[in-house]
Specification:
- The chain is an alpha/beta fold and 255 residues long.
- The protein has a single domain, classed as Aldolase class I (TIM Barrel, Alpha-Beta Barrel).
- The protein contains ten helices and ten strands.
- The strands form two sheets. Strands 1-2-3-6-7-8-9-10 form an eight-stranded mixed barrel, surrounded by six helices. A two-stranded antiparallel sheet has the order 4-5.
- Helix 6 runs parallel beside helix 7.
Length: 255
Amino acid sequence: MNNAMDKLIKKIKETNNPTVMGLDPRYDMIPECIRKKYSSDVEGACRAIIEFNKGLIDSVCDIVPAVKPQIAFYEMFGVEGLKAFAETAKYAKEKGMIVIADIKRGDIGSTAEGYSNAFIGKTPIGNEKVAIYDVDFITVNPYLGIDGVKPFIDDCKEYGKGIFILVKTSNKSSGELQDLKLEDGRSVYEKVAELVSSWGEDLVGEYGYSSVGAVVGATYPVQIKELREIMPKTFFLIPGYGAQRRKSRRYSARI
């Protein structure tokens, strides 16, 4: 099985659970019993985050199919934070979980290729190509058009990985851009949905869904119904379903 969405769906079926556990660590919310083990500097904070994340993964790996670390909560700690991100992703994979890296990258050609190399592809070094981060999926911003998406799709095909493209996001101000009407009467998000559907046509797996998925916010249920009609073979990552507060976030990966 070399189709990323098939792997995710299989894991969902095994656990009978379509939810994804967000791993958005905030140092001040990590239990004191963990924090006091480490020094109160950047390195110590990151070691505490790693221990906390591993504890969460150990607690749910048999009942939750996937984790979704949001990279901003790691990048804020610099190099040590990125090490914590990498170690967290690796540990989740070792425990049999699917890893969705929430990175929301998007840029033109060569830059998009660099982002893709880092997360779902491989980085060329001399005569070799090296995998940097061990994740199954990433989130991608499509608003630069196909130039900013194609490198990710190419790596999905080559390495059996997947992407979730932002279509209709859950935040309150998403409509300022995504709900704008085009000349033909369609909204921007509907047009993006059509593109996402077409971009993923060559990556449909055994379960009938493409490895090019879509991020569609649960806070807009009417739009979800519309988008399902436009993207019948697209798997939805649905933020805004369940708790999404400062202390915790849950995402649903829904068919």
